[in-house]
Amino acid sequence: MKFSTQEEYGLRCLLRIYKSKSPNGLTIPEISQMEGLTAANSGKLLRALRLGGFIESTRGQTGGYKLSCPADEIIIGEVLAVLGGRLFEGDFCSDHSGSELICTHTIDCSIRSLWRTVQVLIDGVLGKVTLKDLAGSETEVHLIATIFAENTEAGLPKDQLN
Question: Does domain 1-70 have CATH number 1.10.10.10?
Answer without folding.
Answer: yes
